[in-house]
Design a protein that fits this description.
single chain; alpha+beta; seven-stranded mixed beta sheet
Length: about 950
């Protein structure tokens, strides 16, 4: 039984206190998920509340249960098919609890609310859909998307957070109860096979959700069923399955199976096409004579053809038999019926020519061989092309080190990467990959992070800086202290993020899924109708025409193109985004990003560099040294970004530090405390001064002047008297203006929401080219503005990096967590940017639109192919042309359709987002509309 404990903390004053408390909690439960600041603790663990409180007290602080704690519920949804369904369900939940934090897609719901789970389920059902609780473990991903697929690890984050995924990817055959079970499948040949396996897994007791991916030949299952039960179900359905115990093993096994499949298809191609082509060429020079000894020659030839069919076409016949046994219809059944029909008709004519009208005495012994050979050739090309679709993921996997050089005593020892533990000192030499996430304790170097962030420039790293696994040390020797190892590293979590997103389905795929499920039975019905029409009202030779048209209809139809249209493009699009430093969490986000019409941005750390500094200071008549010491003591307890700027200023002034007590951080206003001599201290904005009855009239002019220069003003008061004004400036990012221009070129309205003062916010907005700005906001106000924009008809994206941005990120249609953001922000977002630049959002929009466009091209191509191909195969052009489509041409067209889809999807691998997109007239910032 696992618990979500939320406690109010007291006695913590600084980052050191937080670190000491975190260490005590991790010692209590190393697998726990912890989110902590100086005032609050949220912890997911199997330990009871009493033990958590004792651990905090053991670290020297106090803890008590938080009052009126909201509950976090995760549910699986059914019946939602589009964005409208999601919106209707969200509205019902917001009506139930307007303060709820909701993360929802068509299949999953994650909600933090004061309402019970039964009330949430009732609200979903009132909206017309179904919901059921999802069983969790601490390792379960909080992301409401699929949690189990054919690989493992998750997205990037800064520190451990409540609900952060740390899924163990080592899955034994008897692994059970909610853990990740990842299967590599074999024997899949078409979209119908996916349907068969999907049904088999869905009927296994304990399976909450199963997703079978046609493009990767893999399955992701969630629930309490054991891996052995799942494998047995797949094997009983006529296919193969094996558990993948690591990401590397999964990629290697998939590559091995693809190579094996490719070799078999090439062998079958040559085995069928060579004799088939020889027979076809012979027909041009000699028409078979079905009398005398020659007749028996063709009978023997037919038997030889049967032997080749059962050898080269064995895969088709095996799969067709499986389909019949399980009352399913797939592409292999169509091919088997078409090829067998041509052979049976030919043998009937050869054995009993007198029964058949003379005009219909034709042999089609080459047709089965050409059909099997051409389709095998197409599948071989498709397999080879499909192997390139996972190139981005393979490159990420290749970055994982297999060994690390760990300092043991006075010696450097090479150990397996799985043997490295947190706290180990690791030596890193020039040219080596960083094996673990760590903190530099000695040395200086430049690290190439391009594979993780997309930025080509190497960055300098010195003592105290963090480095990530998979990055490249270009020069200099470093000594690292391992902070995250194994599946907890940023790289491992990124790989899982990519694999999970690649296996998810955007809403656009729903139509193809529905069509594919009824496609093969519909084609068989059309073939029967075609045969009856030609037999009853067709011209002579009716039997020959009936055979040709019915066989061509069976052969030309291809559900594979429909089955591949969405997953193949999704795989490549998500992988391409990852190589550009953009982590997209699931298919719905992939689609919604391209539909955005408005983007809401935070100011600090998003538009600005996030490295503020004190530019001006105005001190009143007061004991300057004493006041400076109190200011330093007050800010020691704050973790706000501006606190570091104030502390740096105090250090520059050689200030002493005075201990303060009763420290309190007031969200959106500032901080207060009691000094060592009982002084009442307050540092913050004008609202905090007003609440403490501090007079500001005398400095109003100075404050206005500083704010017009885009500087944030901090007021420092002692015992209700203003002692100092500090002007803090966080410079606009160098690329912010250009990034906003790119967003405007993509028809997005850019809105800035900030808790800063309005003059400062307006100055930044004018400089950056923002369309709309709202200042002086509390964290909950941001979500209100996002809801307003959505009511106005905008599809809203939100970019933020802080814990206080999490509700707004979750409330937006798509949330973007900036690279340096907290894990809470990243978990609330639909996408994470590995670099701190808004250019990443424009890149994500371009990639999303390109991917969805590619999917539409694939879907329309597949629909058009079958819409045009089936009637032509049925003979609708015969009155105009006097000719019918040959089954061999139909086989070639069928093979080409799947190859075309895969080839078109592979174009995404070379897609590059447009870097510069300036308006036609580079207007000044003065023309930008800024409203409040």
């Amino acid at each position: 039984m696992f618990h979500d404990h939320r406690l109010a903390l007291s006695g913590l004053h600084c980052g050191g206190c937080v670190k000491r408390t975190r260490a005590a909690l991790e010692a209590l439960d190393p697998k726990a998920h912890i989110e902590i600041d100086v005032e609050h603790l949220a912890m997911r663990t199997d330990r009871p509340l009493e033990e958590v409180i004792k651990a905090v007290e053991g670290a020297g602080f106090q803890a008590a249960p938080a009052q009126d704690t909201p509950h976090h519920h995760r549910l699986a949804l059914e019946g939602l098919h589009c964005g409208g369904c999601v919106k209707r369900t969200r509205t019902a939940l917001e009506t139930l609890d307007p303060q709820a934090q909701i993360d929802i897609d068509t299949e999953h719901l994650s909600i933090t609310t004061h309402k019970s789970i039964s009330e949430v389920i009732s609200a979903v059902e009132d909206a017309g859909y179904r919901a059921a609780p999802v069983r969790e473990t601490p390792e379960s991903a909080p992301e409401p998307g699929p949690t189990i697929e054919a690989s493992a690890a998750t997205g990037e984050g800064a520190e451990d957070a409540v609900g952060q995924t740390d899924a163990d990817t080592s899955t034994s055959p008897d692994k059970a109860s909610g853990e990740a079970i990842e299967l590599q499948l074999s024997g899949i040949t078409c979209a119908g096979c996916v349907r068969t396996i999907q049904n088999a897994l869905d009927h296994v007791q304990g399976v909450d959700e199963a997703q079978v991916n046609f493009a990767t030949r893999s399955a992701r299952v969630r629930g309490s069923a054991t891996a052995s039960d799942l494998i047995r179900a797949v094997e009983q359905a006529g296919y193969g399955a094996e558990v993948i115990e690591s990401i590397e093993q999964g990629e290697a096994r998939r590559g091995e199976l693809e190579q094996q499949d490719y070799r078999h298809k090439i062998r079958d191609t040559w085995l069928a096409l060579v004799p088939g082509a020889a027979l076809m060429v012979s027909m041009f020079f000699h028409h078979p004579q079905l009398e005398g000894g020659e007749r028996w020659f063709w009978v023997v030839t037919g038997l030889a053809v049967l032997g080749i069919m059962l050898t080269a076409g064995r895969g088709f016949y095996d799969a067709a038999i499986k389909a019949v046994r399980h009352r399913m219809a797939n592409m292999d059944l169509l091919v088997a019926i078409g090829a067998t029909t041509a052979w049976l008709y030919s043998m009937f004519v050869a054995l009993l020519p007198d029964i058949v009208p003379e005009a219909a005495r034709s042999l089609y012994l080459e047709a089965p061989l050409m059909i099997i050979g051409l389709i095998s050739l197409g599948q071989a090309i498709e397999t080879r092309s499909r192997g390139r679709t996972s190139k981005a993921l393979s490159q990420l996997v290749s970055l994982r080190a297999s060994t690390a050089r760990v300092i043991r005593g006075q010696q450097d020892v090479d150990v397996a990467i799985d043997d490295v533990v947190r706290g180990d000192l690791v030596r890193l030499r020039p040219g080596e990959r960083v094996p673990v996430d760590g903190e530099v304790v000695e040395g200086s170097s430049h690290i190439d992070e391009s594979m993780l962030t997309g930025e080509p420039q190497a960055v300098e790293r010195n003592a105290g800086d963090r480095v990530s696994a998979g990055t490249l040390n270009t020069k200099g020797t470093l000594t690292l202290r391992a902070t995250r190892v194994g599946g907890d590293t940023s790289l491992s979590r990124i790989i899982e993020q990519v694999r999970q997103a690649q296996g998810s389905r955007p809403p656009i795929s729903r139509l193809a899924d529905r069509v594919a499920s009824i496609f093969v039975p519909a084609v068989m019905i059309i073939a029967v109708i075609t045969a009856l029409v030609w037999f009853n009202i067709g011209p002579e030779p009716r039997i020959t025409h009936m055979l040709i048209t019915a066989t061509s209809v069976l052969i030309i139809a291809c559900p594979c193109a429909l089955g591949l249209a969405t997953p193949i493009s999704t795989m490549i699009g998500v992988g391409r985004a990852a190589s550009a430093g953009i982590l997209i969490r699931h298919g719905e986000s992939l689609q919604r990003i391209g539909e955005l019409t408005a983007l809401v941005v935070d100011k600090t750390g998003t538009l600005t560099e996030g490295k503020p500094r004190v530019t001006d200071a105005l001190w009143q008549d007061e004991d300057h040294d004493r006041a400076l010491a109190l200011l330093a003591g007050l800010e020691r307890g704050s973790e706000h970004p501006l606190a570091s700027a104030v502390l740096s200023y105090c250090d520059e002034q050689s200030a002493e530090t005075v201990e303060v007590r009763q420290f309190e951080a007031l969200s959106g206003r500032g901080v207060t405390a009691i000094g060592s001599s009982g002084e009442r201290l307050a540092l913050g904005n004008a609202a905090l001064m007003k609440a403490n009855n501090v007079a500001l009239e005398e400095v109003r002019e100075t404050v206005n002047a500083w704010e017009k220069q885009a500087r944030s003003v901090l007021h420092f008061a002692i015992d209700g008297r203003l002692v100092a004004l500090l002007a803090v400036q966080d410079p606009l990012r160098a690329d912010a203006r250009e990034a906003i221009e790119r967003l405007h070129a993509r028809q997005l309205r850019v809105v800035m929401l900030t808790g800063d003062a309005e003059p400062t916010a307006r100055a930044i907005a004018r400089e950056a080219g923002i369309d709309e700005v709202h200042a002086g906001l509390l964290p909950e106000d941001k979500q209100t503005h996002i809801e307003r924009l959505r009511r106005e008809g905008y599809v809203v994206g939100m970019a933020g990096d802080g814990i206080n941005d999490a509700p707004a990120l979750a409330g937006a249609d798509v949330g973007f967590a900036m690279g340096a953001g907290s894990d809470v922000a990243i978990e609330s977002a639909g996408a994470a940017l590995m670099r701190d630049s808004l250019h990443g959002i424009s890149d994500a929009i371009d990639l999303s639109r390109a991917t969805i466009k590619n999917i539409k091209q694939n879907l329309w191509g597949a629909f058009a192919y079958n819409t045009l191909g089936i009637p032509i195969a049925a003979g609708v052009l015969y009155p105009l042309t006097g000719a019918l489509l040959s089954p061999m041409v139909a086989a070639l067209a069928m093979a080409a359709s799947s190859v075309t889809v895969v080839t078109n999807a592979n174009r995404l691998r070379h897609f590059t987002p447009e870097r510069i997109a300036r308006p036609d007239n580079d207007q000044s910032a003065a023309t930008t509309e800024v409203t409040s």
